[in-house]
């Protein structure tokens, strides 16, 4: 009987100890936030709208002629994410435009009236600084820097062709979204101003004609790989 009472006391003590120190369930750990720091490269494609401000009749006034078409490019860069989720970096691209167009000259000079000028751009290159803010796997960014393109064309009256590498500035903005740790999608809009050129003088051989201005807007979507 005494042994039985001792066993009951021991069991009660053990139960009391377990009640006083219950087992705590482990708290699940939240996944670590995505880090945009690293080098990357990728490819993109989209559409571009080229605008050329050209002399109205070769000698006086100006008008805007447009040429639009597809575009494709490769890009590469490096990003560094700060502790406050701000992301800074540098981004470069090199691509090609398909946007040739022609316009007919309306001029009071019979020799020029009805003649045509063709123009368009071929390759395009840019180097831009980037700054953005990371919402975990979503990065919203703005960019800006240097851009260059090769302008080409011809003038029907003389049969002369021309080409020139034009340099200017570019501004853009967009989003990157990390599909996985090493793959991200990109959507970017940009505007580039390439300044002025004397391509009409080059095409006609007539000195002193008004300069032409060139600018381009584009919308591109792509896929990138970060490592």
UniProtKB/TrEMBL annotation:
Gene3D superfamilies: 2.40.160.20. SUPFAM superfamilies: OMPA-like. Transmembrane segments: none annotated. Pfam families: OMP_b-brl (PF13505). Keywords: Cell outer membrane, Membrane, Signal. The keyword Membrane applies. Residues 1-19 form the signal peptide. It is found in: Cell outer membrane. The keyword Glycoprotein does not apply. InterPro entries: Beta-barrel_OMP, OMP-like, OMP/PagP_B-barrel. One of its GO terms (cellular component) is cell outer membrane. Residues 8-227 form the Outer membrane protein beta-barrel domain. It comes from the Bacteria. Belongs to the Omp25/RopB family. This is Porin family protein. The lineage of its organism: Bacteria, Pseudomonadati, Pseudomonadota, Alphaproteobacteria, Hyphomicrobiales.
């Amino acid at each position: 009987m005494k042994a039985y009472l001792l066993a009951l006391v021991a069991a009660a003590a053990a139960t009391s100890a377990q009640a006083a120190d219950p087992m705590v369930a482990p708290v699940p750990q939240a996944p670590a936030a995505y880090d945009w720091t690293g080098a990357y490269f990728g490819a993109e494609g989209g559409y571009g709208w080229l605008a050329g401000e050209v002399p109205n009749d070769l000698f006086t006034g100006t008008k805007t002629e447009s040429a639009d078409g597809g575009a494709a490019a490769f890009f590469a860069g490096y990003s560094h994410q700060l502790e406050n989720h701000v992301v800074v970096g540098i981004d470069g691209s090199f691509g090609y435009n398909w946007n040739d167009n022609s316009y007919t000259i309306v001029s009071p000079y019979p020799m020029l009236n009805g003649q045509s000028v063709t123009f368009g751009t071929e390759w395009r290159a840019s180097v831009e600084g980037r700054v953005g803010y990371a919402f975990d796997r979503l990065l919203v960014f703005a960019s800006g820097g240097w851009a260059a393109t090769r302008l080409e064309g011809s003038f029907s009256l003389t049969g002369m062709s021309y080409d020139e590498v034009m340099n200017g500035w570019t501004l853009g903005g967009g989003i990157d979204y990390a599909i996985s740790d090493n793959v991200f999608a990109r959507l970017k809009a940009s505007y580039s101003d390439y300044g002025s050129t004397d391509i009409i003088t080059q095409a006609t051989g007539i000195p002193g004609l008004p300069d032409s201005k060139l600018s381009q807007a584009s919308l591109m979507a792509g896929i990138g790989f970060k490592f």
